[in-house]
Amino acid sequence: MTVHEAAAEAPGGAGVPNQDSASERRDPVTVHEAAAEAPGGAGVPNQDSDHDAVYGPVESWERDFDHADPSYNRQAHAVWEQLRGSCPIARTERYGGAWLPVTHELVREIAYDTEHFSSRGVVASTGRPDIAAPIGPAPPITSDPPFHQIARRLLLPPFAPKQIEPWEDEIRLVCRQRLDAMGEIEPGTTVIDAALQYAQHIPVNVISRMLGFPLEDDDLFREFVHDQLEGVNRPVEARQWAFDRLDDYVDNQVREHIEHPRDDLTSYLLSAEIGGNPLSADHVRGTIVLLLLAGIDTTWSAIGSSIWHLAGHPDHRRRLREDPDVWTFAVEELLRAYAPVTMARLVADDVEFHGCPMKTEEWVLLPFPAANRDPEFFEQADEVVLDRQENRHAAFGLGIHRCLGSNLARLELRVALEEFLTRFEEFELSDPEAVTWSVGQIRGPRSLPVRILAATR
Ligand code: HEM
């Protein structure tokens, strides 16, 4: 896609970076200054607004990029294309210094280099995690070798295909309930929000059931996700407040599971052992936090982006309806083209990387979605080729941290799309300008108004 085409997709385009940045935000300041300025210091409540953002509008995507600029995700594909042409590793002084490589080759090289690039921090934000490598705050995603393999192995059994396949009926039921809850549909008139009324509910429901957490806390889970993954541009005190709130919630659930063990992931972790010893309380809490965060925003975004795409492509909707054999390829292609997850690394020690002087504790973003659209790696990289046969995409990451939940994610995405397309045969974006996108490393629509044109009931 050219920057010009992207301008149609995202009004303003890559050349107009700050169109919807919060006007009241302050000029960029250092993390240190921001901490001193934050009203009230430690314990500051976690007000949800752009007004406490530490960094203001982006000046240049090459020298001053910001993954939390409110306009970034909307025009990300065009930004990456622009950067691929001008400088394949962008730089920012924000967040204590960060780098953004945008080619498949560079992203891959960093993902495989666990010696120079630590996973201790995977969400680039104003602060730095206070738990040391190799375990990190949320094992295994924040763990480095050799501990990573131990923590990862613990999670393999519950996410193996045999354990995940039986969830299909449950997922289908959740989807149908959500569609039913939309009420009377008048084709041509009814507008539903496919992100808010549909996509967001599916992964929350599944992961709460898996962990054995109360289903009625779903709003709270989305708040946690929003605070952790979207609030990266907030003062460190506000972020700490949000971390503590999430930790307290998980600790309560863990206590309840210790008193009443049952057949779920939380009890599984409580009974797991490393070298004959139970997992530490920090390990159990960190892994649960990881599953809660990794399981929700990611899949919500993948479902939402796919519906966004299908709303603009009647030919693809028709193909999916008429050719059941295309589904396997289509799910992979939608994951490639609309990969939602960028992860971060922390530079372990000063290193010169392809001419860039990367300093210890600086962030390096790994935009797997940009790697997936690199024309050097994929033919017709910016097009959705529904039956793409060879598709070694990086949506689930590259290297030792490859997604453990990919079987579940694929199942949720496929079932959610099947059910949506079965109920709503024809639909379109009711107002492309009204679509809003997430902020931060996970990219997907957060409000997606869709007009239903033909429904089966
Ligand atoms: C479409 C949905 C999803 C996408 C695109 C996705 C993507 C990713 C990516 C890119 C990574 C690599 C992280 C890195 O290199 O630092 C990752 C890791 C991980 N994901 Fe997912 N994910 C999705 C859904 C899920 C779900 C539903 C779960 C579980 C409930 C999950 C659990 C994990 C875990 C535990 C890891 C860490 C693996 C490790 O560090 O060894 N993910 N995911």
Please, could you describe this protein's structure?
- The protein is α+β, with helices and mostly antiparallel strands.
- It has one domain (3-455): Orthogonal Bundle (Cytochrome p450).
- It has helices at residues 3-9, 31-37, 76-86, 104-112, 147-155, 161-164, 168-180, 194-199, 201-211, 218-230, 236-259, 265-271, 281-311, 314-322, 327-337, 368-371, 406-423, and strands spanning 89-92, 98-101, 117-118, 191-193, 273-274, 277-278, 342-347, 351-353, 356-358, 363-367, 424-429, 436-437, 445-447, 449-455.
- The strands form 5 sheets. It has a 5-stranded mixed sheet. It has a 3-stranded antiparallel sheet with strand order 4-14-11.
- Strand 8 and strand 9 form a beta hairpin.
- It is globular, with a radius of gyration of 21 Å.
- The model is unreliable at 1-49 (pLDDT under 50).
- Bound molecules: protoporphyrin IX containing FE (HEM).
- Residues 111, 119, 122, 140-141, 152, 155, 207, 290-291, 294-295, 298-299, 302, 339-341, 343, 368, 395-397, 401, 403-405, 408-409 line the site of protoporphyrin IX containing FE.
Helix tally?
17
Secondary-structure class: alpha+beta
Major β-sheet annotation: 5 strands, mixed
CATH topology: Cytochrome p450
Q: Report the end-to-end length measured between terminal Cα atoms.
A: 37 Å
Radius of gyration: 21 Å
Widest sheet: strand ordering: 1-2-10-7-3
Mean residue pLDDT: 88
Q: How many strand segments? A: 14
**In what range is the share of β-strand residues?**
5-15%
CATH architecture verdict: Orthogonal Bundle
Features of the shown structure:
5-stranded mixed beta sheet; Cytochrome p450; 11% strand; 17 helices; binds protoporphyrin IX containing FE; 457 residues; disordered N terminus; alpha+beta; globular; 3-stranded antiparallel beta sheet
